[in-house]
């Protein structure tokens, strides 16, 4: 075993703190005080008479085992949780951070509902610093995690900002002249609603790949991991098979997603498609990539808003209405240049999104690294003048030896 940091001592969870059982909610609650009720997933929103009298650590005992919540105020831990409200002279915030560092979430031994054994938790080894250093560790951890939380919140905003930026790019690039606007029907060679196949007619192994509306998102990005297959006649294959350059338009979906489009590439050539999708093949004078980008633009989507026919949960855009939507057809060279600029801008935006996601993952690793260093005595400096943790542990043992043993009684059977 490596040498202990100055003033630290070895112990176990069970030697230091008692994991008390939460209680079931009382039949009648009193609206007295602002005391949160805690389950294994955190506050459940009810306010009742507290079970604890001060700062409390709540741990998931059944279900979400090891999930930890720290309440600075009195609260009522419910019967699927353990709680600690007697810290034996240790800093409550320090104990909360220490418990977060332990592998409690991996200690399930139940076969049905996950459960955390109290005896298993009690057997975990812990290193305890002097009480003064505990407070320094808490202050440092609170400050560092506050900074990473702010960084995480900023990174989490990037996908939404990127989506707005993409729409701004499209809005700028797709400002067309009125004399170059045509109804969509004049720009397409053909349009065809897809092949009807029930769920029972779909397979994971037999037939041709079958594209449904969930296989591309609002940005036109493909996701075909759960692609099913269907059987089709030669005539159906000839009629419904996709080609490189086809544009799929989603005619039925939720109000938010109806009207999304995707561009078919060589990877989708030969796929069949569902009857909630309309396949558009554009005239030879219209570049498919430009058509696809124009149909994603705020200008085109603004026209679609007035064409949506919605029920409670489903919206539709009918083929006849879609064909009357104004569609911009500039020269072929300008189409190619606009498509190139949009692709270049989107590629840069996607790179930034990927970098933000990578940074987000690094923050999680950073938090874990900081936590590990904290409980190895490497986060803050040791002070030889601090009272050694061994003295603190002696006091805890003496106090626990004097305290009466608590028991967990059973409810009396109803008469």
TrEMBL record:
Coiled-coil annotated residue ranges, if any: 342-369
InterPro entries documented for this protein: Restrct_endonuc_typeI_TRD_sf, Type-I_RE_S_subunit
- Listed transmembrane segments: none
Q: Does the keyword rRNA processing apply?
A: no
Q: Which SUPFAM superfamilies does this entry report, sorted A to Z? A: DNA methylase specificity domain
Q: Which UniProt keywords apply?
A: Coiled coil, DNA-binding, Restriction system
Mind telling me what this protein is named? Restriction endonuclease subunit S
> Which species expresses this protein natively?
Brevundimonas guildfordensis
What lineage does UniProt assign to this protein's organism? Bacteria, Pseudomonadati, Pseudomonadota, Alphaproteobacteria, Caulobacterales
């Amino acid at each position: 075993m490596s040498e202990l940091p100055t003033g630290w001592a070895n112990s176990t969870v069970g030697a230091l703190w008692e994991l008390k059982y939460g209680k079931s909610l009382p039949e009648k609650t009193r609206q007295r005080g602002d005391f949160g009720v805690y389950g294994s997933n955190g506050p459940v929103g009810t306010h009742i008479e507290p079970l604890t009298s001060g700062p409390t650590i709540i741990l998931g005992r059944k279900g979400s085992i090891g999930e930890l919540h720290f309440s600075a105020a009195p609260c009522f831990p419910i019967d699927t949780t353990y709680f600690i409200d007697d810290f034996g002279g240790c800093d409550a915030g320090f104990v909360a951070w220490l418990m977060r560092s332990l592998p409690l979430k991996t200690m399930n031994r139940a076969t049905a509902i996950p459960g955390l054994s109290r005896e298993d938790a009690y057997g975990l080894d812990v290193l305890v610093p002097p009480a003064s250093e505990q407070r320094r560790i808490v202050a440092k951890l609170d400050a560092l995690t506050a900074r990473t939380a702010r960084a995480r919140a900023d990174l989490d905003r990037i996908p939404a900002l990127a989506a707005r930026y993409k729409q701004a790019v499209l809005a700028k690039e797709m400002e067309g002249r009125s004399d170059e606007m045509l109804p969509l029907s004049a720009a397409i060679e053909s349009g065809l609603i897809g092949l009807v196949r029930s769920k029972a007619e779909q397979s994971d192994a037999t037939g041709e790949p079958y594209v449904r509306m969930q296989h591309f998102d609002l940005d036109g990005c493909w996701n075909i991991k759960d692609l099913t297959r269907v059987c089709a006649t030669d005539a159906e294959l000839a009629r419904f098979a996709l080609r490189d350059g086809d544009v799929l338009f989603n005619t039925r979906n939720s109000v938010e997603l109806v009207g999304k489009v995707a561009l078919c590439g060589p990877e989708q050539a030969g796929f069949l498609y569902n009857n909630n999708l309309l396949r558009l093949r554009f005239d030879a004078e219209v570049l498919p990539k430009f058509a696809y980008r124009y149909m994603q633009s705020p200008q085109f989507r603004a026209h679609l808003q007035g064409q949506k026919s919605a029920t409670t949960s489903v919206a539709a855009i009918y083929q006849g209405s879609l064909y009357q939507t104004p569609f911009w057809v500039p020269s072929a060279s300008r189409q190619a240049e606009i498509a190139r600029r949009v692709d270049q801008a989107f590629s840069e935006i996607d790179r930034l999104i990927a970098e933000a996601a990578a940074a987000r993952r690094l923050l999680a690793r950073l938090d874990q690294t900081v936590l590990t260093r904290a409980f190895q005595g490497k986060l803050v400096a040791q002070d030889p003048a601090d009272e050694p943790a061994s003295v603190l542990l002696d006091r805890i043992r003496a106090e626990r030896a004097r305290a009466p043993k608590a028991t967990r009684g059973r409810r009396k059977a109803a008469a």
